[in-house]
Amino acid sequence: MTAQTSEAVVSTRLSLHKQYLQACQESSQTENLFIAHMLEEAEKGDITLTKGITLKIAGNNRLVPVQKVTDEDFRMLACILSNNTFVTGLDLRYNVLTDIGAEHAAKFLQENSTLCYLNLMFNDIGTNGAEQIAKALHRNETLLHLRMTGNKIENKGGMYFASMLQINSTLEKLDLGDCDLGTQSLIAIATVMSHNKVMKALNLNRPILYSQEEETTVHTALMMKNNSCLMELHLCKHEMKNFGVERLCDALYENCSLRYLDLSWLAVVSNNMSGKGLVALSDSMKTNMVLSYIYIWGNKFDEATCVAFSDLIKTGRLKPNCTDVDPYEVDGHVYLAELSHGLKRHYYWTPSYGEVDNKDANASLAIGAVAEHL
After folding, report:
1. Among 234, 236, 243, which residue's Cα sits nearest to residue 272?
2. Per DSSP, what are the bridge partners of residue 293?
3. CA 24 to chain centre
4. Global pTM?
């Protein structure tokens, strides 16, 4: 980078706040004081030109007064960031962006060539917005990590993302947890992921499932057998039973890449799950030596399950800081207590300052902010 180029980039960085105010003035748009404040803070930071920054304009920021970002606010923000070269991450969680805001985001993703991380979790984006963003990613070759968590894109929205995964060859981390995905979209995503060679982390937590046949689990297991790239998979609250867990275990015997598996709260209906599936899961870990992180709390543990996971921990196969259960013994019987290392400590918010000091507590895609944290 030449001195002249460096000076130009520094000038752009230092004037980002002023650019925003000017864009609002020219469009007769009232400035969002929260956005203005966060841009000012970004200018004050000691930021290296080669590393890039993540702008955190989260609507649940607890340290400063928050004026939630609207669709028009985002349009103004996108205007000044479209050709920006040093902002590589944008955190807009817990704001009030709708499908209209998603259209602005889609246009932004088509124009910007440096953004690696985009967090839109818990806005008000629906199926139409999901379509816009997914189609924009057909052509985007920069974005590595997208979080759509909590936006109710539903089954149809999930289908748009499944189609995107057939085309996009860049995206490495995708979070579609709490998006009300359905059976059709889960099967489509699993089918496409069987041939995906790029995706490293995928969150499909809490879908809306009506069938008891576990078709989605069967297709996910087939994907795990064929996929040799995925390192992290979240399947919380899929209402799996022993049959489904056993299919996943069969897949784990053949899978050589998955390191992190979150199956907490598999079944929420009383008396429909024994420890058979969980014991099979523990047995599979004796053969599969790649899987390192596994979370099972919320299921119904019989004594065989407790003994099996206690043995995994005692032998060192499963490290105590890589799971969410802790074995203990009373009157000669083994039990499992819930053990929290803050697995989702930063799922809904990120530290406003400082670095996370416990990597085991934050081993999840859900709280890994930028692609380099994989």
Report:
1. 243
2. 260
3. 32
4. 0.88
How far, CA to CA in Å, does 108 sit from each of 75, 83, 102, 123, 155?
A: 9, 9, 10, 17, 25
- Sign of torsion, CA 296 297 299 305? positive
Distance CA 149, CA 181 (A): 11
**The pair of three-digit structure tokens given for residue 257, joined into one six-digit string:** 């890449």
Condensed to tens digits (0 to 9), the pLDDT of residues 198-220 reads 999 999 999 999 888 899 999 99
Task: Quickly list H helices, the chain.
Answer: 3-14, 16-26, 33-44, 71-81, 99-111, 127-136, 154-167, 183-193, 215-226, 242-254, 276-287, 303-314
Q: DSSP H helical segments within 261-344, as ranges?
A: 276-287, 303-314
Query: Is the Cβ–Cβ distance between 87 and 79 less than 8 Å?
Result: no
- Could you give the CA distance from residue 309 to residue 58 in angstroms, rounded to a whole number? 39
DSSP assigned state of 320: G
CB burial of residue 53 (10 Å; 0-12, 13-18, 19+): middle
Identify the bridge partners of residue 336 per DSSP, sorted by sequence position. Answer: 327
Band the pLDDT of 354: cuts 50, 70, 90. Answer: low
What are the structure tokens assigned to 111, written together?
A: 């124009």
- d(CA 241, CA 266) in angstroms, rounded, equals 7
Candidates 142, 143, 175, 171; CA nearest to 158 is 175
